[in-house]
């Protein structure tokens, strides 16, 4: 009985496995080039924008002011194809930008470092202005309080 069943199903199993192999081969040849072409992005003065995906599209918008760290690394396979991966860690998560050409990745990291330095300098300036203003208000407030105290005392 087992021999009869095996004889009946072996051609179907062979046909099914051949069909799965064809679908896998098609997907392996069709998907990677389209995924690589779908990786687009740009860095503006206020944010980093990136898009990726073939079947499921994803769009990232990361303000430069919320960036915490920029990491860049290369695997042996990426080194062979002269590309690298950049990870942007920001307040609330992280974003991975894979398969960037080496020159573009280096330019992006340099640009993000310069933009982050400008944002940091702006924050320091605004903090210094705010604190000097608060000190002035506190000094005037203390002088007014002492004047009121002197008037009440007299």
Largest sheet: 3 strands, antiparallel
Cα shape? elongated
Q: Structural class of the secondary elements?
A: alpha+beta
Our Rg estimate from Cα atoms comes to 31 Å
Count of DSSP strands: 6
**Gap between N and C termini:** 118 Å
Query: Biggest sheet, strands in spatial order?
Result: 1-2-3
Overall helicity: 55-70%
Strand content range: 25-35%
**Poorly predicted residue ranges:** 133-154
Tally of contiguous helical segments: 3
The average pLDDT score comes to 78
In N-to-C order, the SSE pattern is HEEEEHEEH
What does this structure look like?
Helices cover 61% and strands 26% of the residues. The protein is an alpha+beta fold and 154 residues long. The longest helix is centred in the last third of the chain and has 52 residues. The chain is elongated, with a radius of gyration of 31 Å.
How would you summarize the topology of this molecule?
Layout: H1 2-38, E1 40-43, E2 47-52, E3 58-63, E4 67-73, H2 76-80, E5 83-90, E6 93-101, H3 102-153
Antiparallel strand pairs: 1-2, 2-3, 4-5, 5-6
Give a brief rundown of this model.
The protein is built from three helices and six strands.
Tags for this model:
elongated; 154 residues; 3-stranded antiparallel beta sheet; disordered C terminus; alpha+beta; 3 helices
């Amino acid at each position: 009985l087992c021999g009869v069943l095996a004889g009946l199903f072996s051609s179907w199993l062979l046909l099914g496995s051949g069909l799965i192999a064809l679908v896998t081969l098609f997907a392996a040849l069709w998907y990677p080039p389209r995924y690589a072409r779908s990786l687009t992005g740009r860095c503006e003065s206020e944010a980093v924008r990136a898009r990726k995906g073939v079947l499921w599209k994803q769009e990232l918008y990361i303000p430069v002011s919320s960036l915490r760290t920029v990491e860049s690394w290369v695997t042996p396979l990426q080194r062979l194809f002269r590309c690298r991966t950049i990870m942007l860690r920001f307040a609330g998560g992280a974003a991975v930008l894979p398969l960037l050409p080496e020159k573009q990745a280096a330019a992006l990291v340099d640009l993000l470092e310069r933009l982050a330095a400008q944002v940091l300098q702006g924050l320091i300036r605004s903090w210094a202005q705010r604190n000097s203003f608060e000190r002035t208000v506190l000094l005037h407030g203390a002088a007014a309080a002492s004047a009121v105290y002197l008037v009440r005392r007299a």
